[in-house]
Amino acid sequence: MKITVLTLFPEFFDSFTNTSIIKRAIDNKHVDFSSVNFRDYTLDKHNNVDDTVCGGGAGMLLTCQPIVDAIKANRQKDTKVIMMTPQGAPLNQQKVHELAQSDDVIVLCGHYEGFDERIRSYVDEEISIGDYVLTGGETAAVVLCDAMIRLHDGVITTTSHEDDSYENGLLEYPQYTRPIEFEGQKVPDILLSGHHENIRKWRLKESIRKTYLRRPDLLDKKELNKEESKLLSEVIEEEKMK
Ligand code: 4G0
């Protein structure tokens, strides 16, 4: 996968690309990452990339010319152009899977009060990482790029991401390591029993419990099978008793 970030702060991505799993993914050529300053494309004599809002009002907007020229210069036929904004479609794990299918993406990061509306006609997907406003799209772009890169074969060597939170529509079950008792808190006996079927059922039930307590909206969306429905009924009964 090739990722080109268009940004006013290409250095912002240095710590991301020089750290741990992402660095290895780039070194091993699972991903070809670059960040490009769209100010380099401005034709303005003062190198400006923003201007005041037509019709008046406070603030500045990113203008069309530098960004559209940067998109045109960095896109191929099959490039997906993604823009990070608070008005975009909410990012979730399913969306990450969809976007990570693309072989070539451009991720556009904004600043100021946002973009001239006409820039959107050069964009395929407008994405938000959540309902809050950031000073720039760079932090949002790092989140999106990280989530896409880690799904690529060989980036995470185990299959541990297959039972990650959200991959099955449920939050992750509680997990423990040694010691068996820490400051009075014990590892649940069942996890030490060696009984794989009981452990599987306990984990599924505790996944359902955590999702029911913290993210009931995820349960509303999920199609539960017979076993899961039964475990959810048990969880609801148990939580009522507490
Ligand atoms: C475009 C993304 C970009 C418009 C970017 C701000 C939050 C997110 C930006 C604006 C961002 C997100 C209208 C303020 C840059 N903040 N939630 N900031 N406006 O993904």
TrEMBL record:
Its EC number(s): 2.1.1.228
Residue numbers binding S-adenosyl-L-methionine: 110, 129-134
Keyword Transferase recorded: yes
GO molecular function (one): tRNA (guanine(37)-N1)-methyltransferase activity
InterPro entries for this protein: Alpha/beta_knot_MTases, tRNA_m1G_MeTrfase_C_sf, tRNA_m1G_MeTrfase_TrmD, tRNA_m1G_MTases_N, tRNA_MeTrfase_TRMD/TRM10
Biological processes annotated in GO: methylation
Catalysed conversion reaction: guanosine(37) in tRNA + S-adenosyl-L-methionine = N(1)-methylguanosine(37) in tRNA + S-adenosyl-L-homocysteine + H(+)
Location within or outside the cell: Cytoplasm
CDD domains membership: TrmD-like
The keyword Cytoplasm appears for this protein: yes
Lineage: superkingdom: Bacteria
Ranges where the tRNA methyltransferase TRMD/TRM10-type domain occurs: 1-220
Assembly description: Homodimer.
Role description: Specifically methylates guanosine-37 in various tRNAs.
Family indicated by similarity: Belongs to the RNA methyltransferase TrmD family.
The protein's name in its UniProt record: tRNA (guanine-N(1)-)-methyltransferase
Gene name in the database record: trmD
